[in-house]
Amino acid sequence: MSRTITSSTLTRPRDNRMIAGVCAGLARRFGLSAGVVRILFVLSCLLPGPQFIAYLVLWALMPNE
């Protein structure tokens, strides 16, 4: 299975935001649905790890579109 990368840069879109646009930006970058990335993020928060901290760091570092 081959995945196509739809965008060469990692930016937060202005049009498809729920909270900060991090999941939408990651979805656009890797050619996935934003809803799928959001569900995966929420499910990953049930596991131990720094997921929420990673989200905050990406929110601070990812530029707006």
Question: Which terms summarize this structure?
Answer:
48% helix; 65 residues; 3 helices; mainly alpha
How many individual helices?
3
- Uncertain segments: none
Q: What proportion strand?
A: under 5%
N-to-C SSE string, H for helix and E for strand: HHH
Q: How far apart, in Å, are the first and last alpha carbons?
A: 29 Å
How does the helix and strand content classify structurally?
A: mainly alpha
Give the C-alpha Rg.
Answer: 12 Å
How many runs of DSSP E, i.e. beta strands?
A: 0
Backbone shape: globular
Number of domains: 1
What is the helix fraction of residues, given as a range?
Answer: 40-55%
Give the averaged pLDDT, no decimals.
Answer: 86
Main pleated sheet = none
How would you describe what is shown here?
The longest helix is centred in the middle third of the chain and has 11 residues, at 34-44. The protein has three helices and no strands. The chain has one domain (1-65). The termini are far apart. It has helices at 22-30, 34-44, 51-61. It is globular, with a radius of gyration of 12 Å. By secondary structure, the protein is mainly α.
